[in-house]
C-alpha cells in the first residue's frame, strides 16, 4: 500500500521565475519515517480539478536537516507544478509519501572525490548529494558542472555560491550558460569539450570515485558515453532523469490474450485478469489495489515489484540494472505480462 502522510508547508522560496523551493515541516513522530539518503525523492499526492495527481520531486536539503526541501519547476499548465506556483501557500497541508529512490550517495570513512553533471531542475538531488559529500568528511571534494540558459534561470544559484564560500578548497562549480554570456560562466552547453575542460584540464590530477548525472536524457547519455570512452567503469556512473520522455520503444511483437495476475502487497494477495497488451500497474490500479507509484514513466523506482511466477517484458527502464532484472525485478508501470499467469510481489523489493 502507498502510505502517504500529511505534511505542512513551512516555507516557499522563489528560486527562478519558473521554479520554487518548498520546505516541509517534519513532525517529531515522523522524523524516522522521513529520514532519507542524499539523492532520494518524495512523491506528492494532490487532487486537482477532480483528478488525483502524483508527482515525484527530488529532495535538495541535507539529510542532517530537520525538514525536507524540494525544488519544483513549472512544467505543466494544469498539473501540480502550476498549482505549486500559483496557489500553494505556507501552512497548506499536502499528502506526501516517505522518501525513496536509488540515485544516492552514502557517506563513508574514506575520502571521496565526486563529480556531477546537471542541467535545469536536475540540480535538485545533486544539491543534497553535494551537501552530504562536503559535510560527511573534511577531505571530500565535489566538482559540479551545471547547465542552464542564464543565471536568472539557474535553480539554487545562491545556495551554490554559498557552498563555494563555505568550502572554497573542496567545492568547485562550473556554470554553463546557453543563452547569455555572463561573468564566471562558460557559454554553451554541456558537451564533450566541457567535460574534457573540467575533468582533464581543471581537475586533471584528481581521481574521481563516482560521477552523478541528472538532467535531460540526451545530456545524460552524452556524458555517460564520454565517461565510458575515457575508461570510467559503469559502476561509477550514476544517473537519474528528472522527467519522463515520450515512450518510443515497442515490444518486439504484439501481445494478445489474457493473463491471470496474482498481486502480493502488504502481506495480502489479490487476483485479477488483464490483457497482455496493458501494463501491470494500470491493471492493478483499475482493480482499486493501492499499489505504490509515482511518475508512471519508467524513471522513478516507486512501482518496483518482484516476479515470483511467470514472465513480463518492460517497454522502458531507466532504473533497474541487468542484474536486478535477472533477479526478477520489474517496473510495473512499464511491464507487459507475456505468460498465461504472473505473480508480482511489491513487498519483496
General description of the model:
With 349 residues, the chain is of the alpha/beta class. The protein has seven helices and 19 strands. It has helices spanning 80-86, 123-136, 157-166, 192-202, 217-229, 280-286, 322-326; strands spanning 5-16, 19-25, 41-48, 51-58, 67-73, 93-100, 113-119, 141-148, 171-177, 185-187, 210-215, 237-241, 258-265, 268-275, 304-309, 312-314, 329-331, 335-337, 341-345. A six-stranded antiparallel beta sheet has the order 4-3-6-1-2-5, with helices on one face. A six-stranded parallel beta sheet has the order 10-9-8-7-11-12, with helices on both faces. A hairpin with a 2-residue loop joins strand 13 (258-265) and strand 14 (268-275). The longest helix has 14 residues, at 123-136. Residues 244-249 have low confidence and may be disordered.
Amino acid at each position: 500500500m502507498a502510505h502517504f502522510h500529511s505534511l505542512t508547508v513551512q516555507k516557499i522560496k522563489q528560486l527562478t521565475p519558473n521554479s520554487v523551493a518548498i520546505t516541509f515541516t517534519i513532525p517529531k513522530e515522523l522524523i524516522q519515517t522521513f529520514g532519507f539518503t542524499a539523492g532520494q525523492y518524495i512523491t506528492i499526492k494532490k487532487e486537482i480539478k477532480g483528478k488525483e495527481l502524483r508527482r515525484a520531486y527530488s529532495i535538495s536539503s541535507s539529510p542532517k536537516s530537520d525538514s525536507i526541501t524540494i525544488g519544483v519547476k513549472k512544467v505543466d499548465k494544469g498539473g501540480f507544478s502550476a498549482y505549486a506556483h500559483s496557489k500553494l501557500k505556507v501552512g497548506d497541508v499536502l499528502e506526501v509519501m516517505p522518501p525513496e529512490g536509488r540515485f544516492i550517495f552514502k557517506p563513508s570513512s574514506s575520502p571521496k572525490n565526486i563529480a556531477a553533471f546537471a542541467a535545469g531542475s536536475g540540480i535538485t538531488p545533486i544539491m543534497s548529494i553535494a551537501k552530504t559529500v562536503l559535510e560527511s568528511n573534511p577531505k571530500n571534494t565535489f566538482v559540479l558542472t551545471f547547465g542552464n540558459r542564464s543565471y536568472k534561470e539557474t535553480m539554487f544559484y545562491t545556495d551554490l555560491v554559498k557552498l563555494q564560500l563555505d568550502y572554497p578548497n573542496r567545492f568547485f562549480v562550473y556554470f554553463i550558460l546557453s543563452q547569455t554570456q555572463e561573468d564566471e560562466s562558460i557559454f554553451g552547453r554541456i558537451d564533450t569539450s566541457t567535460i574534457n575542460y573540467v575533468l582533464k584540464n581543471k581537475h586533471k590530477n584528481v581521481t574521481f570515485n563516482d560521477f552523478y548525472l541528472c538532467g535531460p536524457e540526451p545530456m545524460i547519455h552524452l556524458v555517460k558515453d564520454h565517461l565510458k570512452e575515457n575508461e570510467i567503469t559503469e559502476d561509477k556512473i550514476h544517473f537519474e532523469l528528472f522527467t519522463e520522455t515520450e515512450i518510443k520503444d515497442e515490444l518486439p511483437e504484439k501481445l494478445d490474450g489474457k493473463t491471470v495476475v496474482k498481486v502480493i502487497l502488504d502481506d495480502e494477495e489479490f487476483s485479477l485478469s488483464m490483457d497482455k497488451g496493458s501494463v501491470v500497474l494500470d491493471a492493478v490500479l483499475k482493480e482499486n489495489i493501492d499499489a505504490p507509484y509515482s511518475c508512471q514513466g519508467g524513471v522513478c523506482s516507486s512501482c518496483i515489484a518482484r516476479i515470483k511466477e511467470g514472465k513480463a517484458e518492460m517497454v522502458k527502464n531507466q532504473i533497474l540494472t541487468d542484474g536486478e532484472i535477472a533477479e526478477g525485478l520489474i517496473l510495473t508501470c512499464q511491464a507487459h505480462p507475456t505468460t498465461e499467469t504472473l505473480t508480482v510481489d511489491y513487498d519483496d523489493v
